Amino acid sequence: MSSRLARSAGLISIATMASRLLGVAREAVLARVFGASADASMDAFNVAFRVPNLVRDLFAEGAMTAAFVPTFSRTLNRDGREAAWRLGNLVINTLVIVTAVLVVIGILFAEPITRLLAATDFTSPLLRLLGFDAPAPAATGFAAVEGKLALTVQLTQIMMPFLTTIAVAVAMMGMLNSLNRFFVPALSPAMFNVATIVCAYALVPFMPSIGLAPVAGIAIAAILGGLGQILVQWPSLRREGFRYRPVLDFADPGLREILRLMGPGTLGLAAVQINVVVNTSLAATQEQGAVSWLQYAFRLMYLPIGLFGVSIATAALPDLSRQATDADKSAMRSTISSGLRLMLMLNVPATIGLMVLARPIVELILEHGRFTSKDTVATAMALMFYAPGLLGYSAVKIASPSFYALRDSRTPVIISIASVTLNLVLNLVLVRVMGYRGLALGTAIAALFNAIALLVLLGRRIGGLDGTRVTIAMIKITIASAVMGAAALLTSYWLQSVLPGEQWYIRMAQVFGAIGAGIVVLLGSAKVLGISELMTALDRVRRRVVRR
Length: 548
Hints:
By secondary structure, the protein is mainly alpha-helical. The protein is built from 21 helices and no strands. The protein is globular and about 65 Å long.
């Protein structure tokens, strides 16, 4: 099971790596074309994109995925493919109807929604409730910049149909994953990045000629990217035997089971979105560029999550669903323990690496065109404080779906609400002390709390998580990663002294030289400490190379 999980996760990681690298290229293009604090464009786009994302997280990627995959897998194993295809059609058609209504509402009420999200002072009453004095919002806050709110409203209206496209794409992804088809679904998000990069050069320059702001070209790219995710998955799903049927049956037991599981999950995610609204409001009260600095940093931090956390969780979920159906708790413990140890081996070094090399990484990827050195420093600081949350986010990707596989949607919701409350309190306090950086730190702490609480309760539910083995692995990996971080930091300083300059190739040599030194030290430390997870992975790679 451990070997199969590693192989599946590796396959997903390859596809996800391609998608995430294109995502980094996408951020570099946006930074070059629009910058972060140069004008209102990227702050407006990031807030506008948050609106369909709020609803997408509620209905498409969050609760729906966690509820759909286990139910679809059970139907597939118990009743066969025809029944599973019918359930897939029911889910797709239901999602299209629900999201279409939400799209129309979002377009009609874009202005009050956007004003609520970005220009409403939530912080003062909440701070007073906590017993603090409430300062006035910064003069450079969101609503204070002329035309910024109007631009955000326009971009929101353009991007709302993205919600429907991504809902269908996520349903298709869930069906393919249940059939153990991981590569194409993991690659499909790359279509969003490709569309953005192409439109940044093909559409953005022509937007003013039709009366739209240049950044509207990126809003159109979002819709094209959502359509691309559907189109790239369709051939694979069709080869498996799926045929679209315009059927609706709200009395279908499988659909009702998904809706039943989604209910509590949606309530939990609604609590998360309340926190997103407040965090956006808090960031919008900071200086111009704060919303974009946090967004750029979060996306850089999310690269390892996509590569490692999501790929491991995606590979494990179909197995966990089958094991939960068979009430095989021993197999579930083995799958979850293996996933957690693999996640730690990949993400602890990534966390420390992001923290010690935050500034050179941001310089290399983003500091071009209108993205200034001021933006680099601000984004790097946000990245450093976000990075510890990487472990929390990745562990939750494994723990939360495990509860859904056990048909327990209540526990993740309760923990989600508790972590959101903690995040809210931390961010309200820390933003007063650390500015926008406090929002990143508060979010990271809350993510770690969420993961730890879920894992403790999951262990109680299935009779343990092989805790001793996981703890020993974590201690060894942390020691090896700390040594790696020190080596990478010292190498970075040395390379900056012997290879000074701001040219892209010099920065690339500095960053990859430091990363290379860190990897060599990590491998040596892992060998000395006897970290079996890394040794097993390397041995598997060696055997595969020898065979070829």
